[in-house]
Amino acid sequence: MYFIRIFFLFLLCCNANAQVPLIANIPGRTNINLNGRWQYIIDPYETGFYDYRYVERNQKDKDAYWNSDVPQNKTDKLEHGYSTKNTLYVPGDWNSQDRVFLYYEGTVWYKRSFDFKESMNGKKVFVHFGAVNYKADVYLNGIKLGMHKGGFTPFNFEIPDSILKPENNWLVVKVDNKRMKDEIPTLNTDWWNYGGITRDVNLVIVPNDFIEDYNIQLQKGAFTREEKIIEGWVKLSAPIKGEIIVEIPELNIRNQIAANGDSVSFTLSSKYLKLWSTKSPSLYKVIISTPADKVEEKIGFRNIEVNGDQVLLNGKRVFFRGICIHEEMPEGMRRAYSYKDAVYLLGQVKELNANMVRLAHYPHSENMTRVADSLGLMVWSEIPVYWTIDFGNDAVLAKAQTQLTEMITRDRNRASIVIWSVGNETPPGDERLAFMSTLAKNARILDNTRLIAAALENFGLNGEQVVKDKLGDYTYIIAVNQYIGWYGGLPDNCRKVKWAPNAKPMFFSETGAEAVGGFYGDSATRWTEDFQEWYYKEQIAMMKRMPANFLGVSPWILNDFRSPRRNNPETQEGWNNKGLYDQKGNKKKAFYVLKAYYDEMEKKYEK
Ligand code: GCU
């Protein structure tokens, strides 16, 4: 039965993934950037997609919003149009750009024109999106290029050169961010449903036979040897007879591999390789070339593994001084997307003296993982299989698998990523266990070099706490969200709790309390910074009593963030205020309590 389920899932993925394979390392290729002001049409009734009988319009239907909005003559009747009166900035969510979009959930049509003067002999061109939340139907000059679902992972479609024009190419994207029961995530989340083309858009020009994907990593266990072994593979878009060259100039490595097909694997070695670590995040320029193509990027080399009830980074026990982050800039109440945003958010993380970030609850932008690489921050990256997904639906499992594959494909060369998480706070049950364990197994098949996790839940308020969730049998660590003192009892309940040891490393993947920035009082007054400070003091005292397998914590959360679920008119008003930084970027009192704990743990584990 299990095999049949996996095979069916594989077939579903192929079908759901009707696009061409994801092209790796977009920043390292020839791009024409299409960021900027796009014109839009708000279309809550999807008039541009369905006719008045709610039948999908055919491709040539002049009332379809993917077709020209220019009347052919004065008698022409057209009831749609793109205008400079209505523009949105891309990348960026629509909710924060105009009050009309604040709570909007539905379809918005985006359109921009571009000229294309490149000579295309021997080349191909793709349109690549860093992310679109949630469903994207993409058209060029009235021809549909493809459809993608998933709000936080990249995708690309090939543009047949038969439809490209030298001038005034019409790129139209139908974006629909309606929440649906059978999607990933599902109807309810505790974050704002920011819709739009939320990350970069590029035209990517590649040779006909191009380097499609590759992986290059430190061999498992290689950190112990003086001669470090690096291994990897290169996947081409088509078979070639020729040489593939892998170079790491700073290490004087130039390896020529004879290719006779569409992929090669290789091993390299060096006595001079400096390992990537949180204290010394060494990155090396890696250049991969074929007779027709060449890509390069900075890559770090390290090992991460579980050994008994410990996690080892390059063979040394590591303690996670973590923090959770939503991909959001509180100032401006908007999705974070840029390199500057990533530097800002991860700069806050470094101020906290954290060495790890849990990028909740969905893959963040490539800027975040590349900046984490350069700052030496370990990353927990997660797909938004969040709360009560439609676990009995194989089509939903295929969607989760597609997002898992896209997340791992985009970031498999990021040294900072040490954990792939397949979900958060999913409710125990047989269908859920089958669904989640399938994802955990597939994550391991896609990448057996990193830890696989899922954030579980624990609600106990006193006595011994034993984590019994069977999903923990399929993950490398036992990661638990607990809110003792906020969602149950008061902070001093922590004194009544004793956590049972277990055979795997144990991690508090969330814990936190709300505080309105600047609201002070006595520590028993909920919503004050003083209460949140008390919460952290009691939680940390409990953490100091954890058994030896305690791996660390990533408290919820770095910054206050937006959520339509948080509607106390005095203390929330659409904000979840569990941030250690408030809505204006000011540190709350609890920030200093956690930082003091992290300074202490740094001395204890990284002296
Ligand atoms: C949950 C959940 C978060 C949520 C948090 C909270 O654990 O994982 O997404 O925001 O608790 O209630 O604040």
Please give a handful of descriptors for the protein shown.
single chain; binds alpha-D-glucopyranuronic acid; disordered N terminus; eight-stranded parallel barrel; 607 residues; six-stranded antiparallel β-sheet; alpha/beta
Draw up the topology in text:
Elements: H1 2-16, E1 30-33, E2 36-42, E3 87-90, E4 107-114, E5 123-129, E6 135-140, E7 143-149, E8 155-158, E9 169-176, E10 201-207, E11 211-218, E12 228-248, E13 253-270, E14 284-289, E15 294-299, E16 304-307, E17 310-313, E18 316-317, E19 320-325, E20 328-329, E21 334-335, H2 339-351, E22 356-359, H3 366-375, E23 378-382, H4 394-411, E24 417-424, H5 430-446, E25 451-457, E26 463-465, E27 478-481, E28 497-499, E29 506-510, H6 529-543, E30 550-553, E31 561-562, E32 575-576, H7 589-606
Helix pairs in contact: 1-4, 2-3, 4-5, 6-7
Bound molecules: alpha-D-glucopyranuronic acid (GCU).
Residues 190, 361, 424-425, 481, 510, 556, 576, 578 line the site of alpha-D-glucopyranuronic acid (GCU).
Question: Outline of this structure?
Answer:
β22, α3 (366-375) and β23 (378-382) form a beta-alpha-beta unit. Helices cover 17% and strands 31% of the residues. The chain has helices spanning 2-16, 339-351, 366-375, 394-411, 430-446, 529-543, 589-606; strands at residues 30-33, 36-42, 87-90, 107-114, 123-129, 135-140, 143-149, 155-158, 169-176, 201-207, 211-218, 228-248, 253-270, 284-289, 294-299, 304-307, 310-313, 316-317, 320-325, 328-329, 334-335, 356-359, 378-382, 417-424, 451-457, 463-465, 478-481, 497-499, 506-510, 550-553, 561-562, 575-576.
